[in-house]
Design a protein that fits this description.
Blueprint: H1 2-9, H2 18-29, E1 50-54, H3 60-70, E2 74-78, H4 84-87, E3 89-94, E4 97-102, H5 104-107, E5 112-116, H6 126-134, E6 136-141, E7 144-149, E8 153-158, H7 171-175, H8 179-183, E9 187-191, H9 197-212, H10 215-227, E10 235-236, H11 246-254, H12 266-279
Parallel strand pairs: 1-8, 1-9, 2-5, 5-8
Antiparallel strand pairs: 3-4, 6-7, 9-10
Length: 299
C-alpha cells in the first residue's frame, strides 16, 4: 500500500501515531487553492493547518521537525522564543532607509511553517489569525503599507496548560486559546498518554534499539511492537469525536504489517512531496455527498 509506506516514511523513529502522520502527510501534500473570480466567487485556501495537542513526551516535536525536513520549503520555530514580528514581518532600518524583514510565515510562502510550543505564544496568536485564513500578511509601519504573501501551511504542537491533559475540561480550557484561533486549524489531534504497561515496555525496547544503533536489535524490537496493539492512538477532534465508520478502516489500512517495504529515504520522500505539490491537483467528484450512500450525514 503506497499510502501506508508514505505514512511510515514520515518520522519512522516514532512508532505508531499513524493517524497523526497521515494528517501531517496530507498537509505536506497540500490542497488546491481557488482564487476568487470576477463574478464575485469566494477565494479558498488550499493549505491544510494541523494542530497537535497532548501530553508531553509523545513525540510531537519530533513529528514537526520531520515534517519541516520533508517539506520542499519548511521553517521550524519554537513559540517560546518567537514574537509577532518574527512570525509575520518587521521593519528594519538599513543605510538610513526603512525596509521590511520577512518573518517565518512569509519565508515559508508556498511551504510549511512548523510552530512548536504553540501554547507559549498566546499573546501572539492575533498575528496568525489573518495570515492563516487570508494567506497574506498586512503591515503598516514607518509610513509604509504593504501586503506580503503568506500562502503557508501551519503545523503546530501545544501542551496543555497544566502540563498534562485534563479530561474533565474542554479543549479550549486545556489550551486557553480563543475559539477563532482554534477554528483556523482544519485538523486537531489529541494525543493522550494512556497507561499501558505492556505497550510501554515494547516502546522502551524500540527506543533503546534505535539509540543502540544495532540493526538486528531494532528489527527485533519492532517485531515485538507489531505483535500487540499500537496503543495511544490519537483522537481526531475535527470530525465531531464520533466513531465514524470509515475511521477504523483507515487506521487498519495505515498500520504497518510484517513484510512491508522499508520506509522511503528522506531525500526520496522530499522529492515525492515536491512532485505531488507541483503536478497533482485533485478535484472532488461530488460523490458521495450528503444523503448519498457512504456519505450520509457527512461532507
Amino acid at each position: 500500500d503506497q499510502l501506508r509506506q508514505l505514512v511510515h516514511s514520515l518520522c519512522p523513529s516514532i512508532f505508531g501515531q499513524e493517524l497523526v502522520k497521515a494528517g501531517l502527510l496530507l498537509a505536506l501534500l497540500g490542497g488546491v487553492r481557488k482564487a476568487g473570480g470576477a463574478d464575485g466567487g469566494m477565494a479558498l485556501r488550499g493549505d491544510v493547518h494541523v494542530l497537535l495537542v497532548g501530553d508531553p513526551g509523545l513525540g510531537k516535536s519530533q513529528l514537526l521537525q520531520a515534517a519541516a525536513a520533508a517539506a520542499p520549503r519548511g521553517v521550524y520555530i519554537c513559540g517560546n522564543t518567537s514574537s509577532a514580528a518574527g512570525l509575520t514581518v518587521s521593519v528594519v532600518r538599513e543605510n538610513g532607509e526603512f525596509a521590511f524583514d520577512a518573518g517565518a510565515l512569509v519565508l515559508a510562502d508556498r511551504g510549511v511553517c512548523c510552530i512548536d510550543e504553540f501554547d507559549k505564544m498566546r499573546s501572539d496568536h492575533q498575528a496568525l489569525l489573518g495570515a492563516m485564513e487570508q494567506q497574506e500578511v498586512s503591515v503598516a509601519k514607518a509610513g509604509m503599507v504593504a501586503s506580503l504573501p503568506a500562502r503557508t501551511t501551519v503545523l503546530a504542537a501545544a501542551n496543555p496548560v497544566d502540563g498534562s491533559y485534563n479530561r474533565g475540561r474542554t479543549l479550549l480550557e486545556n489550551l486557553r486559546v480563543s475559539p477563532a484561533m482554534l477554528s483556523r486549524f482544519d485538523l486537531v489531534f489529541l494525543l493522550l498518554d494512556r497507561p499501558d504497561a505492556q505497550h510501554d515496555q515494547r516502546l522502551s525496547e524500540h527506543v533503546m534499539a534505535l539509540h543502540s544503533g544495532v540493526e538486528a536489535r531494532a528489527t527485533a524490537a519492532r517485531s515485538r511492537l507489531l505483535e500487540g496493539p499500537s496503543g495511544g492512538q490519537p483522537l481526531l477532534l475535527t470530525d465531531g469525536g464520533g466513531g465514524g465508520g470509515g475511521r477504523p478502516a483507515l487506521l487498519d489500512r495505515l498500520r504497518v504489517r510484517r513484510g512491508d517495504d522499508e520506509p522511503l529515504p528522506p531525500q526520496l520522500l522530499r522529492k515525492y512531496i515536491a512532485y505531488a505539490r507541483q503536478y497533482v491537483h485533485p478535484r472532488l467528484s461530488g460523490k458521495p455527498g450528503l444523503g448519498e450512500e457512504g456519505g450520509e450525514g457527512r461532507v
